[in-house]
Specification:
heterodimer; A: 3-stranded antiparallel beta sheet; B: alpha+beta; 4-stranded antiparallel beta sheet; 3-stranded antiparallel beta sheet; 2 helices
Chain lengths: 119, 143
């Protein structure tokens, strides 16, 4: 890591990045954790060009036609991921909610929050 | 099962268009991130790992007289009274910056291991022994 021309260059694996010191300072001044920032970045990345986006409970998506939407959720490994209709649907299976896709089944708590994006 | 230990709570946007983030499991005040700042980051290559390191590097060096990356073994025998040493601990599960302040610390070469650099933390009245590989890069900051 080194600073040249008011830019911090991170040249480590896997991809070199360069961050404006002004951007880093503004984030540091806002406070919060890196996880909060990652949440905000993900939310922004999937909603930037969308018609609307909001946090909803998984229970609100059961048996709902989600065509034209995508859902952002936090996967078991802690990373954010997305589901895009019509390749999935939420349904109740005993006490859990199942999101069934073409090649996998995801299990959610009904009280879990996900990001619902209208494309 | 998703969200068993953490329920993310991005509270959409406020009146200024900023994205507000809070935690519903770990109590924490919400933070509003301006979308312009988020877009500036999203346009860059790299990962959250890079960003975390960059943010912390900037935080600890912003008001410093000097900051340089050195090998841990180069600190052996140095007077670190007015210095703060940081190293970035990371594995598959977690990562954090750990600070090693002067005065109560001293670096010694541990001949019983393969170029390990060790020090003791007794600021809290207890002694904890720490060690890292001598070739590990640490950030030496003088304020």
């Amino acid at each position: 890591m080194h600073i040249v021309d008011n830019v911090l260059h991170v040249t480590e694996y896997p991809v070199a990045s360069s961050y404006s010191l002004d951007v880093l300072d503004s984030i540091n001044e806002l406070g919060g954790t890196i996880h909060a920032l990652e949440d905000a970045l993900f939310y922004r990345s999937i909603s930037k060009d969308a018609e609307s986006a909001s946090m909803v409970l998984v229970s609100d998506l059961i048996d709902v036609d989600l065509k034209g939407h995508l859902v952002g959720y936090r996967a078991d490994d802690g990373q954010w991921d997305t589901l895009t209709a019509p390749k999935f649907s939420f349904r109740i299976n005993t006490l859990q909610v199942i999101a069934e896709t073409t090649n996998r089944i995801l299990r959610f708590e009904a009280t879990e929050k996900v990001i619902l994006v209208k494309l | 099962m998703h969200g068993s230990t953490f329920v993310p709570s991005v509270d959409s946007t406020d009146s200024k268009g900023s994205i507000v983030v809070s935690r519903s499991v770990v109590a924490q005040d919400p933070v509003a991130f301006p979308v312009e700042t988020l877009d500036a980051i999203l346009e860059l290559p790299g990962s959250g790992y890079d960003l975390e390191k960059a943010l912390m590097f900037r935080r600890v060096t912003r008001n410093a007289k000097s900051a340089e990356w050195v090998k841990a073994e180069d600190l052996v025998g140095q007077d670190l009274t007015d210095a703060t040493v940081w190293y970035y601990f990371a594995n598959w599960e977690d990562s954090e910056w750990v600070t090693v302040t002067g005065k109560s610390f001293s670096f010694v070469e541990d001949s019983g291991y393969d170029k390990k650099v060790t020090w003791e933390d007794d600021e809290e009245g207890d002694h904890y022994g720490w060690s890292i590989d001598g070739w590990s890069e640490v950030l030496l900051v003088r304020n």
